Amino acid sequence: MEIRVRSGDTLWHYSHLFFIPTVLIVDSNPGINPNNLQVGQMVKIPGFTESSYTIRSGDTFWKIAQSHHLNIDALLLLNQNTNPSQLEVGQKIRIPLRVTTLTMDGQDHYDFQKLNNDIEKLLAVYPFMRRREASKSVDNLPLYDLRVGKSNRKIQMNASFHANEWITSPILMKFLNEYLLALTNAQNISGVSALSIYENAQLSAVPMVNPDGVSLVLNGPPAGKREEVIRLNSGSTDFSGWKANIRGVDLNKQFPANWEFEKERKPKVPGPRDYPGSSPLSEPETKAMANLVKNESFARLLALHTQGREIYWGYEGLEPPESEVLANDFARLSGYKAIRYVDSYAGYKDWYIQDFRRPGFTIELGLGQNPLPISQYDEIYAHVKPLLVRALI
After folding, report:
1. Can you list the positions of beta strands (E) in the chain?
2. Set 262, 283, 310, 364: catalytic member
3. Does residue 307 have a cis peptide bond before it, meaning omega lies within 30 degrees of 0?
4. Which end of the chain is less crowded, N or C, counting CB atoms within 10 A of the terminal residue's CB?
5. Up-side HSE of residue 9: CA atoms within 13 Å toward CB?
6. How far apart are the first and last CA of the chain?
7. Short-list 319, 343, 294, 346, CA closest to 156
8. pLDDT surpasses 80 at 106
9. Order of strands across the sheet with 202-206?
10. pLDDT tens digits, residue range 54-63?
11. CA triplet 26, 30, 31: central angle to 5 degrees?
12. Residue 12 · residue 22 · CB < 8 Å
């Protein structure tokens, strides 16, 4: 929702008028000097949309404000060209509406287009969230990095490294949506003040690392590549088992952490899963994720995968002591099993631990055979939500 600045207005006044923390209003308006508002400037108020109200006989601004649980100055602010003492029946005025429910509209068939639509909706209501492109995929789709928080203490979370594990994307997006909603409604999330998280951590969320692969699994081969991807899929048009990117490279076998060892025991040609590529970081998606870590100095990293209800937290004894503490907390909160070492290498969290000696985790969501059925969505989310909150504190 946008409002126009009047003489004497301050962001502090807007904060008290709409019960929105001042910091969220400031961060929603990065181009405005909060100490020197100019009359006529447009200011974004996060956590609100607006509706139209039609004046009826006997209406006054005071009555309308009372019936909508608003301060009367909120109506005056949104309707500066309306004379409150000369209301006419049938006249329309603007009414601010606080957002109190999730903005996302479901999770089924969660491809890049659905993700992009949800991001646009979140940005419209929560403009203090920042969106940037980490890079682009093979098929030129943006790899979005969504940021929420003030601190230089940065936590990275990502989803859908593997195409048929696409359920991880709406899980991460729902968490982001609940966090944003809690911030603008002065609420806790899993028992923790959302505002305290915002002030003490910066979340970097990459909700779909492999958009081309996800689209292949959900929508079938893209135009111009049908014959090629069917060939890589051993002649099958069933892509439900496809984990790789659109070129047949397994993105979570691409990182320089015992990559040569994985290369020797994994497929030697591109295909639906496990091919580690011709060299480490050969794919634009893995280059982007590696550069993100190199440039941002993340304190922790969580990669969401499926399935197994397990938390992998070690790599070659290089993980710091904090990793075990966090892994045990994650296990307690989620009901998942914490596992230090597995016979798998060249993954994102492996490389992160190896090169940065900081806590990195692969979280295997849910149980069953990939792709997990969407019927598990609510159960998975209930397990993982408190874990994700703990990762931020």
Report:
1. 2-4, 42-44, 48-54, 92-98, 130-136, 142-148, 154-159, 188-189, 192-193, 202-206, 300-306, 310-312, 337-339, 360-365
2. 364
3. yes
4. C
5. 23
6. 30
7. 294
8. no
9. 130-136, 142-148, 202-206, 154-159, 300-306, 360-365, 310-312, 337-339
10. 999 999 999 9
11. 125
12. yes
105 pLDDT exceeds 80? no
Strands (E), 29-122: 42-44, 48-54, 92-98
DSSP code of residue 335: -
Main-chain phi, psi angles of 302, to 5 degrees? -130, 125
Mean pLDDT of 8-24: 97
Catalytic site includes residue 262: no
Tokens of 8: 């004497």
- At a CB cut-off of 8 Å and minimum separation 6, what does 297 contact? 154
Per-residue pLDDT tens over the stretch 233-276: 999 999 999 999 999 999 999 999 999 999 999 999 999 999 99
Mean pLDDT of the chain: 97
Cα–Cα distances (Å) from 73 to 6, 47, 62, 64, 78, in that order, read: 11, 18, 9, 12, 9
